[in-house]
Design a protein that fits this description.
Layout: E1 6-7, H1 22-31, E2 40-41, H2 45-56, H3 60-74, H4 81-90, H5 95-103, H6 108-120, E3 128-131, E4 134-137, H7 142-158
Antiparallel strand pairs: 1-2, 3-4
Helix pairs in contact: 2-3, 3-4, 4-5
Length: 161
Amino acid sequence: MPDDGIVRSLREGEYVGGALTGPIGEMAKESGLIMRRAQITPNTRLAFEASEFAKDKGLFDEFHKACYLAFWEEGVNLGQLSVLQEIGRNVGLDSQEMKQKLDMGYYTNQAQDHYQEALAIGVNGIPSFIIGRYFFSGAQPYEFFRKVASMAQENEVDNGS
């Protein structure tokens, strides 16, 4: 992925800022989620590093959720440090400290190690999930999650766990 991300190509009838279409768009709508078409697919390397910073500060969940909302609802470029700083500031992080740590590559190896670990267990797309011994990727309907959770629970009972 280039540092600047990739400009998204739009299908007929789609427009930047418009609701996602297709199966993912339908699932989002049914779930009450806002998911709009962003202008670019960002290079999220810095966002992963910023997430490690947030984790160190005890604000990972808040930062992660704020990044998700900013991307899907506002279409921000999560590959831009200034965007990540603003999101961080809004959840209580020190944006200047974040910038210093990211500029010096403080979290680069840690984020790369997590990435390599994910590849090693078969993650090649997002979102990806592990429930019990079951692994799957991609947006799935709620009923699919229920079925996998039930199978995982049955497996634990069968194995005496």
